[in-house]
Design a protein that fits this description.
By secondary structure, the protein is of the alpha+beta class. 56% of the residues lie in helices and 16% in strands. It has 9 helices and 5 strands, in the order H-H-E-E-H-H-E-H-H-E-E-H-H-H. Strands 2-1-5-4-3 form a 5-stranded antiparallel β-sheet, sandwiched between helices. A hairpin with a 2-residue loop joins strand 1 and strand 2. It is elongated. The relative contact order is 0.11.
C-alpha cells in the first residue's frame, strides 16, 4: 500500500473511531468497521477486537474479511493468546510466527487453531484508556506471508496501536455520552414529576377548599396508605381518575 493511500485510510479510520456520540451506536458494528480499516491498512488476513472486563471477554468485533476465522481465533483464547497477553501486560505483543509459538507450546489452543486456518503470524496491541485496560486488537497474517503483516514490524505495531488508542477513546466517549443522557433523562423526569405534584396539589386544594400544604399532606397520605408512588397519585388527580375519587372527599389529617 502506498504511503499516501495508507495515510488516507488511517485518516478515515480515525474519523470513524471518533464518531461514537449517537443513540444508535452499536459496539460490535463499530469494532467491525475499525477491524476492516486495520486489515486494509496492514494488508492482513483478518483482525478483531476483544473487549475484556474482569478478566473475561465480554464482546468481540471482527473484520468483514474472513469474519468466521477472526471470531474463531478470538473465542479460542480463553486460556491464553495474544489478546489476553497484551491485555494483561498493557503492552503490544510483537509479531509472532505461529509455527514457532506452537512448537514452544506458547498458547497451545490458539496456535493449533491458527494453524488450521493457515495463519502464519499474529500480533496484538492493547486497548486502553488512561491506564485502564479495556481489551486488545489482534491482527492475523497468512501462512505465505513474512512474519510481519506489514512491510515493517514497527510500522504495523504503530498503526495498530494508533487505531486501538482511537477506538479506546471513542468507546470511552460513548460511555460518558450514555451516562450524561441517562442523567439528563432522570433529571427531566424528576422535574416533570415535581410539576405534576404541584399541579395536583393545586387541584386538590381547590376541590377540598384547603391550603396547599394540607392538600399535599392528603396526597402523600393517600400514596402511602395505598403503597403507590406519589407521582402516580398526582397523575391520577390531574387526569381525574376514578381510582382516587375518595381522595377528593377526604379531609386532611396528620401526616
Amino acid at each position: 500500500m502506498h504511503h499516501s493511500s495508507r495515510e488516507g485510510r488511517l485518516g478515515a479510520a480515525l474519523v470513524e473511531a471518533a464518531d461514537t456520540l449517537s443513540e444508535a451506536f452499536d459496539t460490535v458494528a463499530y469494532l467491525r468497521r475499525l477491524s476492516d480499516h486495520c486489515v486494509a491498512l496492514l494488508d492482513a488476513s483478518a483482525a478483531g477486537f476483544m473487549l475484556i472486563e474482569g478478566g473475561e471477554a465480554v464482546s468481540f468485533g471482527v473484520s468483514s474479511r474472513q469474519q468466521e476465522l477472526a471470531l474463531d481465533l478470538l473465542e479460542v483464547q480463553h486460556h491464553g493468546g495474544p489478546c489476553l497477553e497484551s491485555y494483561g501486560s498493557g503492552e503490544p505483543v510483537p509479531p509472532v510466527a505461529i509455527r514457532a509459538a506452537h512448537a514452544s507450546s506458547r498458547w497451545p489452543d490458539f496456535t493449533e487453531r491458527a494453524l488450521r486456518h493457515d495463519i502464519g503470524s499474529t500480533f496484538a496491541v492493547p486497548l486502553r484508556r488512561k491506564g485502564t485496560p479495556l481489551g486488545a486488537l489482534n491482527v492475523f497474517a497468512p501462512e505465505q506471508a513474512r512474519p510481519s503483516p506489514a512491510p515493517e514490524d514497527g510500522t504495523a505495531l504503530l498503526l495498530a496501536q494508533i487505531l486501538a488508542d482511537a477506538a479506546a477513546l471513542g468507546l470511552a466517549n460513548h460511555r460518558v455520552f450514555t451516562q450524561y443522557r441517562t442523567l439528563t433523562s432522570q433529571l427531566q423526569e424528576a422535574l416533570s414529576s415535581r410539576v405534576r405534584i404541584e399541579q395536583a396539589k393545586g387541584m386538590l386544594a381547590e376541590r377540598r377548599r384547603t391550603g396547599m400544604d394540607e392538600a399535599f399532606i392528603a396526597l402523600r397520605r393517600f400514596a402511602r396508605s395505598h403503597r403507590l408512588p406519589i407521582d402516580e397519585v398526582a397523575t391520577a388527580v390531574i387526569t381525574d381518575s376514578q381510582d382516587i375519587a375518595e381522595l377528593g372527599r377526604e379531609h386532611p389529617g396528620p401526616a
